[in-house]
Design a protein that fits this description.
18 strands, 14 helices, Urease, subunit C, domain 1, 2 domains, single chain, alpha/beta
């Protein structure tokens, strides 16, 4: 048993003073006590808050951040960005994906993420043929997670079609090709490989309604549920207007409405993006208990749209944040963009606040951490008995945080500048970031630099 002392810690029922947190040998919180003396406990070194989950990641895209910021069409959109991405991934091999993912994960940890949901669809070799072991690419991502110490929920993705109406896959998309049978075989192999590791969770990700047909979606759901009745299920939905219009032509329903009407959507599900949903859809989604995985910097970068966040929260909808294309690697920027995009759309301030929780920063951090843990199927997102010991220790001496306490710390963290204000990070009871640095960051960055140089040739 290890004990940690914090003069301030954000607990489930608010901020606690002089808190002792006991962590067992398995990396879970055994006890939380307030108004304590340090005794023999290790000083955390600053205010302690729950770690944040990044629920939507395509790790390989970290290496192409910045490469799609050149005009290709007068109507540049997600679809033109996707062509740049397809061109980039033509050459990626497992060792390169491992190096890119390790760089991303070390950056994320240093900024306060403690867990990641990897929406993994890059399955096959560049020519589209499966590797000798079909989970070769998935193992590369898991190796990066193990090296860096981040907790991971790996979500192998079912990707069978290029568009609604069972349009065949084309060109680079053949690297994604899977069937429910092949994907469930991958999942079974991964379960055997990862058994017993508390920092690895497995789920599934039907890529989108345009990439799977209804029969496949139901077969995947049934197969994943048979393997694990609590397995997380993630799906891209309503990211762009064209997708919504195509879905209407295909089914006479919008994507979120179709999913809610045809699948047993509940707390296991994470619906990613949802940047083009109607208010009635958002209200029904809130009632389902599912989590919406919002990716604000990605949505802004691609010009996708904005989610009806205010109404969704009024209906007590659950949400989380994701980095997706990884133009940003920090939860602070995702939360800030989430709030600012709503302020611009609604022309008023403090959207995420309420009478019961007037602090925008505290509301965003607390709710995103909790929703993120739900979406990743992890007992995390709060500092409480029985939860994983995933903590972020803030740098109380930072110029933006000095002299501030309680919710004012989180308001300042989210809205004051862009300098890193994270001091230490713990995942599963183990320190992975100390004094703002990941222990392996130099070696990881050197390896990543060589890979990025090779990819730019």
């Amino acid at each position: 048993m290890k004990s940690f002392f914090a003069e301030q810690a954000l607990l489930r029922d608010g901020w606690g003073d002089n808190v002792v947190i006991e962590v067992d040998d398995g990396g879970c919180i055994a006890a939380v006590r307030v108004r304590q003396k340090p005794g023999g406990a290790e000083h955390a070194g600053g205010p302690v808050i729950p770690g944040m989950a990044n629920v939507h990641s395509h790790a390989f895209q970290r290496a192409m951040a910045g490469l799609a910021e050149r005009m290709g069409s007068a109507e540049d959109s997600f679809w033109t960005w996707r062509e740049v991405m397809y061109s980039f991934l033509r050459q990626l091999n497992p060792d390169q994906v491992y190096a890119i993912a390790a760089q991303l994960f070390s950056e994320m940890l240093s900024n306060g993420y403690t867990a990641v949901g990897e929406f993994h669809y890059l399955h096959h070799a560049p020519d589209g043929k499966p590797y000798a072991r079909s989970i070769e690419m998935a193992l590369a991502v898991l190796r990066a997670a193990e090296e860096t110490g981040i907790a991971i929920t790996l979500l192998p993705s079912l990707y069978a079609y290029a568009g609604f109406g069972e349009e065949p896959l084309k060109g680079p998309q053949k690297r994604f090709a899977t069937t429910p049978e092949s994907l469930l075989a991958m999942l079974s192999d991964l379960r055997d490989t990862c058994a017993g590791d508390p920092e690895i969770r497995l789920g599934v990700a039907p890529h989108s309604l345009r990439a799977v047909n209804p029969a496949m979606l139901k077969e995947l759901y049934a197969g994943a549920t048979a393997l694990d009745p609590a397995a997380p299920i993630h799906i891209h939905l309503a990211q762009v207007v064209k997708e919504v219009n195509d879905c209407l032509s295909w089914s006479e329903k919008r994507p979120v409405q179709w999913l809610l009407d045809n699948m047993p959507v509940d707390a296991r599900w994470c619906l990613v993006h949802c940047t083009n949903v109607s208010t009635p859809e958002a209200e029904k989604l809130a009632a389902s208990g599912a989590v919406v995985g919002l990716c604000p910097t990605t949505g802004a970068n691609l010009g996708d749209g904005t989610f009806p966040f205010a109404r969704y929260r009024e209906r007590e909808g659950r949400f989380a944040i994701g980095g997706d294309i990884h133009v940003s690697q920090t939860p602070v920027e995702e939360l800030r963009w989430l709030e600012y995009s709503q302020r611009l759309a609604l022309r008023r301030r403090n959207i995420a606040a309420s009478e019961s929780s007037p602090s925008v920063g505290a509301s965003l951090w607390r709710e995103a951490a909790s929703g993120g843990a739900q979406a990743l199927g992890r007992k995390a997102g709060a500092i409480a008995r029985g939860m994983r010991a995933d903590f972020v220790v803030l740098d109380a001496g930072h110029i933006n945080l000095a002299g501030r306490r309680g919710d004012a710390l989180l308001d300042s963290l989210v809205f004051c500048g862009s300098e890193r204000m994270v001091r230490h990070v713990m995942v599963g009871g183990r320190w992975v970031v100390r004094d703002g640095h990941h222990a392996g960051e130099q070696a990881i960055a050197a390896r990543y630099g060589k890979v990025r140089t090779a990819l730019m040739v």
